[in-house]
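Q: I have 348 residues here and want to know how they pack in 3D. Can you give me a structure?
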Amino acid sequence: MTHTGTAADDPTANPTTTGDTVAAPLTRRAAREAAERAARRPLARTASAPTAPHTSAARPAAARTPATRAAATRDGRALGVTRAAAPSASSRKRRFMAPVVLAVAAGMFGTMAVPAAFATTSTSQAGAAQTDAASDLTVQAQQFDVSAAAGAPDTSRDGFSATSTATLEAQAAAKAAAKAAAELEAARAAKAAEYAYDGKTAEDYLADDSTGAATTASAADAAATSAAPAAGTPFSLPAVVATAKQYIGTPYVFGGATPAGFDCSGYVMYVYAQHGISLAHSVTLQDQVGTTIPESEAQPGDVVVFNDDSHDGFYMGNGMIMDAPKPGGSVSIRPIWSSNYHIVRFGI
């Protein structure tokens, strides 16, 4: 049997080649060329030795012996042909993950880029629309003349004026004050009707001598049960006190000078008239007629007059006063609430 080939084809010709040497991995092109050379080699051997009835390539797979297979394996190693290793699990995972990663990256890119593109397009469209609208307004501007007759009608009926908040508040306060005054006047009238008086006035007492005599007698009786009057007093101050106490509870009525209702000076005038002393219905005039005395000499029945002539009443001793106080009040005895006063005595 004739063997053709080179020393490179014989694994024994190369001293560096051993059965245990592992060939370096080949590229696909090198593996393909090696496979082609391995396929051509049996043909060459057959052509050079036609008398050989059988070759290792032509033998059936079943007829091959272990020695033949070993020799074929050595021949393949000598030619640099290696069996492709089965793909590993990591390589299969990489092949599977590569398309997934690409798909995710493409989706993220679309999510970030597409809205920006749409926003830019919307902004540009809005700007274009505004530009078109401004252009339409400019192009479609119209001019017209208004007839002078349109301004002829009188519009004075449509005139109006504004009222400030302060004015409104002042008007409301004035209305409230007027309402309060009306209510007070109605209350006074109701109280006057309740205490209706048809008896004698201060003038009646002063004009009727008999009444004065009776009053003097009653005053003498009252004086018998009270402290003796001071020396030189022409009438009894205790009698004046007794008369004044008869009207405790009479309501205050501005300008009143009868038991139907008293104000401060009307009360003093009415009581002193019953004892024959005529006084004006005025705090100032009563102060002028009377004689001012020191408070140390004052006795119950003298008159307390405030220094500004705003009020007066009967002195009751120990810093007390009996008077007709103010609207809503009534004749009563109470402490003097101020030191700005002096004492006046009548009949001296």
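Q: Anything worth noting?
A: The first helix runs from residue 28 to 48. The chain is about 45% helix and 10% strand.
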